[in-house]
Every structure is written in structure tokens, then in C-alpha cells.
Design a protein that fits this description.
With 261 residues, the chain is of the alpha/beta class. It contains twelve helices and six strands. The chain has a single domain, classed as 3-Layer(aba) Sandwich (Rossmann fold). Strands 2-1-3-4-5-6 form a six-stranded parallel beta sheet, with helices on both faces. Helix 2 packs across helix 3.
Amino acid sequence: MLFIHGFPEFWYSWRHQLKEFSKDYWTVAVDMRGYGDSEKPQGVKYYKMKYLIEDVKNIIEALGKEKCILVGHDWGGAIAWNFIYTYPQYIEAYIIMNCPHPTVYKKYLTSNFAQFQKSWYFFFFQAPYLPELFMRMNDMALVVSSFRSKKNPNPITENDLEAYKFIFGKPGGFTCPVNYYRANLIKSSLKRNKDVEVPQGLLIFGDQDLAIETSTAEETAKTVPNLTLQIIPGASHFVQQDEPEEVNKAIHEFLNNIKAI
């Protein structure tokens, strides 16, 4: 199982899943390009989706594997969607959290005012310097508040928060992650090949996501074949940290059903 995180996260955001699924699988969670201890190419162009997809392919090959169960959240989910259609031969199954299919997201962004409002940060992040300053303000208050939900106001511990602050508090800690938004605003690199047989997938979605409308997940489930949708009531955008037990249960059920096929 290969876990790829989103923004603003690093490998540690998968700690609950790594502990649970390492009992039955070889679990690997990485810091994506530009995050944590991974390489940080300088320049927006190096964060285009085509490079992010190749990173995942290279990781799978470096681990000596032919296939994986790919698990992605947020930007990790967007990368996973693109990877599935580009390199389906590497995918045994996939699990995506709080990230609709890119085509559905683009449709909602241009036709649904509620989603357009929720996506304000996507446009703000196009500005130079200001987004990084904004994310660092008041001891990274925005990062801290984003992890909280009405159902679970304190889903992560103070020690967890310190880990995030340490990673993103390094010089330039936010610049490369924000470059994901700068490099991929205009055009998605997703090419939907009708001849591609999409593997079995699971879309997990916390319905209290402040950035993405839940209806995008429902639309995705209608659009993508072989996809199971599991909505987690009351969970935030960071569903795998907010409600780890419910998320892990949904993953177990999905993987067990695949084995039974």
C-alpha cells in the first residue's frame, strides 16, 4: 500500500493507517516532491502534474513492485486520479480521500458558485510570496485550525501539531507545496483513455469539508466505473486524521470485498 499525502501535510498524516494496515500489507508513506525531507526542485514548472505522476511510478519501481494499492488524500488524491489513467497497469486498487475526479472538480469550479467560493485559496495561491506568509502567520494558525472539525475539535495532539510546525517551519517550507497550485491551475494533465479499464476504487469523503462540496463526491461516484463511495458524516477535509477508525473500517471492508471477487 502506497500512501501519498496532500496539502499541508507530509507522510505523518497517514500514521493511523500505517499502524493499522501494516498488520496485513507492506505499507509505505512518502513525503511528496517539495515536502518534508524529499527533494525540493526550485521553480514552479517542476511541480506540474506530469512530474508528480512520474514520481509515483518511480517510487513503485524503486520499491521493486509491479503493482500497488494506491491511497491518496487531497493533492495525493489528484495525483492518484491522474496516475490511474496514465499507468493503470501499476494499480491493483485505489483509495482516494476528499478529492473528486478532476473532471468533476473542474466542472463544479466553473458552474457551481458554492464550490467557486470554497476554492478561493486556489486563486490566492497564484500570488508570489503572500501565500507562504499567510500560512506562517500566528504560529501557523491556519494550519492548526484546518485540522479541526465540529465533530472532532481536537483530532490531533499538540505533539502532532509540533511535527507539522517543524516540517513547514523550515526555510521555504511552504513554497514548494504552494507551487503545486501555481503549476496546475490552468490545465489538468488528466487524459481519460476510454480504452483504460479502471481498477476497483474507493472514494472516502468527509462531508464537513470546507474546501470541497460533498456533491462533487456523489457526482464522481456516478461518473467513474468500479468506484465505491463512502461518506463519513461530520468528518472534515482531513478525514483520515479526523476519523481514523471509521476510515480504516471503510478501507478494510473495501479490500476484503476485492479479495472476495
